[in-house]
Amino acid sequence: MSNTTRFATNEDIDDLRHIWKTVFADSDELINAFLDIYFSSHSTIITQMDNITAAAGYIIPVGELASRDIKIPCAMIYSMAVLPEFRGKGLGNAVVNELISSGHAAGFPAVVLCPTSDDLFSYYSSRTPLTDFFYVGEKLYTKTFGEEDDSVLEQITSIEYLKLREKALSAVPHIAFDDNSLKYQSYILSQYGGGYYMVDTSGEISCILVERQSEDTVWIKELYGENIKEQSIVNAVAKLYPASSYLIRTVAKKTGTENDLRRFGMLAFDSSTIAITESMDSLLFKLESSPIYPLYGLAFD
Hints:
By secondary structure, the protein is of the alpha+beta class. The chain is about 35% helix and about 35% strand. It is built from 8 helices and 13 strands. The chain has helices spanning about 15-25, 30-40, 90-105, 120-125, 160-170, 180-190, 230-240, 275-290; strands at about 5, 45-50, 50-65, 70-80, 110-115, 130-140, 150-155, 175, 195-200, 205-210, 215-225, 245-250, 260-270. Strands 1, 2, 3, 4, 5, 6, 7, 8, 9, 10, 11, 12 and 13 form a 13-stranded mixed beta sheet that branches. The chain is globular and about 65 Å long. The model has no long low-confidence stretch (mean pLDDT about 90).
């Protein structure tokens, strides 16, 4: 069997929809929304075996890998999928490596990926330039809540959310997402339920992104701010989004946190540009003494 890895064209759209639908079981509306925003012939890689499109993935600009005065253009590998009958043949590996190369060539020294399962971290690190880089703090709250009830939520626009988010993360190495990324995230929220909120907890301002995953589960996908009172915020969210459990994702601290530390994302860095390499070296130097891990944030999961 012969295989070919190449950029996709408009003629491949139906095959791309088929792979996405088969692997992820998302709605046609969600798939089409993503393709409308992000598809182009230079951002989508496919692998074909005997003229059958068996694997596909996308490299999408998302903003910058940022930390105070350091800003490195960043692109995300997204919706990496291989049809079940073609797995175990190295097709996904071929697509990911091509996506990394094309991202770097397009001017994005930082290419990132959020693996869909923990075992894929070791898989990608052994077969691609990707290495573990981003972590997240997670905690699951059940339906039994405390008495804390001093957080007030105010729904805000995606643009207002981005401004609050950047302010809250000014000292945190993170992906600073662009407006287009929030456009896609907003569509996801419109399909599943959720929104962007400013939170006032006794005068302490934070920001959250809430997304309903199912009737019983709500994710607070992002929660950023100072002196956060998680239980109080969960209680406030529960009034708007009744559920049995609430998963919170926050900035991951290296010590002194009650939240579970989880690997979340990987990075492939292009060191061919001296100025960018100096910025990355400066970022890595700061991370050595930083009490927090780099933050991936939105993964459109």
